[in-house]
Amino acid sequence: MKEAIRFTFFSFVILLIIIVTIIWPIYGFTGIGLIIFGLGIYDIFQKKHTILRNFPVLGHMRYIMERIRPELHQYFVESNTDGKPIDRNHRAYVYERAKLQNETHPFGTELDVNQESFKWMQHSIYPSQKLKEVPRETIGGSKCTKPYAANLFNISAMSFGALSSNAITALNLGAKAGNFYHDTGEGGISKYHLQGGDLVYEVGTGYFGCRTEDGNFSPENFKEKALLQEVKMIEIKLSQGAKPGHGGVLPAEKNNYEIAEIRGVKPHTTVLSPPGHSAFKDAKGFLYFIQNLRELSEGKPIGFKLAIGSKGEFIDICEAMVETGIKPDFITVDGAEGGTGAAPIDFSNYVGMPWEDALIFTVDTLRGYNLKKEIKVITATKIFTAFDIFKALCIGADLCNSARGMMLALGCIQALKCDTNKCPTGVATNDPKLRRGLVVSEKWKRVKNYQEQTMEDFLELLAASGCDSTDQLNRKLIFKKVNNKILSYNELYPDIEEGCYLKK
Ligand SMILES: Cc1cc2nc3c(=O)[nH]c(=O)nc-3n(C[C@H](O)[C@H](O)[C@H](O)COP(=O)(O)O)c2cc1C
């Protein structure tokens, strides 16, 4: 109720400001009167809007308020902890690190540490020495001849098309300066990706950049891209947390000539990637596809990204790995609460497993089939802070990606307009007028700063936990309040004995 009153009050203030500053000086009182009269007549006789026919002139307030509601809400109503999908505290965390501003917080936590599901980590009375450098994680199993030593925190998949050319360029330059990788997203590799940063080349169901004319996988085109020296790993996208089972969506407004050419599609049409791959139809077929990509890329690490849906299908893939001996080098796990440029709302809200359950299930299944030692687990979904990375690694991930964290570092203000080509910050738009607002020479530094500062904080948490290396991180170090009891993750999700599913 308090929020509603504040909201109405601020809406009126803004409307008053508009009338006094814009309309009155130009048209005076008589002019305003005539405009209002004409508007009233039009409203009564138009047939589209019931509210305007019944409440001429006044009814416009509703549409104006609806239009500016998100902005008013964010600026005047939202508290530090309730913004959606990313609350103000987390957004501020990224902005401060990106701009190298104040990294401390005054006067204690604003979080309700006694609320159900609250998570925290244990510290040690005997902290370890803070590591001087962020450790790297080598990705590449026994069949991989070009393993890659990855940073622990990287840029998650976001295509050129979903993001502007300036955003992609700044991300890649940031990745280069900070020595972390940049996942291309399913939209292919553009010249903006080739600024010298390490790339993970994502191959989605649309096979953009490696497709035949009729939209199937083209080994020749794939090989050409995979052999680029910037490409360090290849990720086959099975699904994405925000829209599993749907496939990518590039709205027509964002699909300009340049993007259409890179993707091999028609410009100014909505581009929907198919929900599934045409290159394989079952678990073994999928593994042979992985083997094929490994050969075509001459031994680069090959992995896949998915949001967990049917547990049985994932188990099938693991069993096929055991049977055929063909294994991916990494698996990227995304959660239902993950981000997207554009998705149907039901898919975003109700399809796919939430992140924590998905990560636990993936790690445990791989351990159960004795596959975890060879296959690295990468994860993304609301990993913004050093604690988020710490928690993910304790659960069993080997490294993390961030999409929306990196967007915030680029200057995203969560305007929620990624699907309209009207992103006001130039991050998620291909409108040249808006894109110019994003100054690459400034923003790449912010991407680098955010990543570096977060990793610095991570090293401090690691030291505070008493661990000397990330290998020591485990589920006993983090806790969650469940049914009013505090339980460690190890109690909640006990460790699976390596290979135990093979004995059945
Ligand atoms: C604008 C945008 C575009 C994305 N495009 C892709 C994509 O092309 N391929 C993909 O696998 N995931 C894509 N994602 C999902 C992210 O890579 C990531 O998995 C998900 O947003 C969860 O991470 P986050 O919480 O850090 O955003 C996109 C996300 C956003 C916000």
Provide key terms for this protein.
single chain; 504 residues; alpha/beta; 8-stranded parallel sheet; 3-stranded antiparallel sheet; 15 strands; binds flavin mononucleotide
Could you give a quick summary of the protein structure above?
This protein has helices spanning 2-45, 50-54, 60-77, 88-98, 165-178, 219-226, 257-263, 283-296, 311-324, 345-350, 355-368, 386-395, 404-410, 432-435, 440-464, 489-492; strands at residues 119-121, 137-139, 148-150, 153-155, 181-183, 198-203, 231-237, 249-250, 271-272, 302-307, 330-334, 376-379, 399-402, 478-482, 485-488.
How is this structure best described in words?
- The chain has 504 residues and is α/β, with parallel strands linked by helices.
- It contains 16 helices and 15 strands.
- The strands form four sheets. Strands 4-13-12-11-10-7-6-5 form an eight-stranded parallel beta sheet. Strands 1-14-15 form a three-stranded antiparallel beta sheet.
- Helix 4 (88-98) crosses helix 13, helix 4 (88-98) crosses helix 15 (440-464) and helix 12 (386-395) crosses helix 15.
- The mean pLDDT is 93.
- Flavin mononucleotide binds at residues 156-159, 162, 185-187, 202, 237, 240-241, 248, 305, 334, 338-341, 380-383, 402-405, 418, 428.
